[in-house]
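Table S2 (text version). Query chain:
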Amino acid sequence: MPRINFALEDLQAFVATAEKGSFRMAAETLHISQPALSRRIEKLEKTLGSRLLDRTTRRVETTNIGRQFLEEARAALDILDNAVFRLGDEATLQRGLVTVAAIPSAALHFLPHAIHVFASRHPGVRVRVIDESASTVLASVLSGESDFGLNFMGAQESSIEFRAIRAERYQLAMRRDHEWSARKCVAWEALAGQRMVSVSRQSGNRALIENAIAHLERRPTIHYEANHVVGVLALVEAGLGMAVMPGMAVPRDHPRLCAIPLVEPEVDRVLALIRRRDRPLQPAAQALYETITLEMAGA
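Corresponding structure-token output:
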């Protein structure tokens, strides 16, 4: 096996330069001089026997080998970084790293407040949020990439523990100047023929809604799609149509959008904290888990 004859700082120098595309910016990020940065990268390239970066007068780009090595270098640094933080003072919540996977609506409208409360109590603990679709959130928790997740309850996994923390009803989001904005409620069948915006078919929200209204004779037709809730609301705000959104997605004080209840039928989703049954949470993760439970129950 080839001897590893380079330092951690050399690996960090390469990753920073590859990501910034600039020796100057990478040196500033690492708080070292450009000559020192160059020496670290040259040492790494010499040890590996391969050129990792192509240098031009205007920009630095990774070579083919460099691009492949970059992913592995990032992964190695992440592993070391996580190990250092987890083995530090996590038991006393002085330091630590917690990774939370969350569906976009929760990550956008609820998690920031809960994390703010958590950070005020444990300022030394870092929090990483993975905001993705429901299926990706579940996969992230199953794989161990995330300590736990915030998802809505759908297909049950025997290896996953679900803690239901809030039920919310789907509503119809629209601009405040829309002709329907003064209505008390809207029936699902009334959406037929209206211009509608929706999350993509890969979204758990989309699947849940379509299953819930499959029995209706007249159903809405989707004109515009976006992958996440943020994109959907941007299209609604631009006046391109209305959208069926979970109640959390449209705050009551939104300056340009409002949401009204959908009826006949009333469709709910249940938000839940999810975690692996076979993996106890580390102290920092457990503390954030409980903070989210309490804050969301009172939201």
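Notes on Table S2: Residues 167-268 form a domain with the D-Maltodextrin-Binding Protein; domain 2 fold (CATH 3.40.190.290). The two ends are 56 Å apart (CA to CA).
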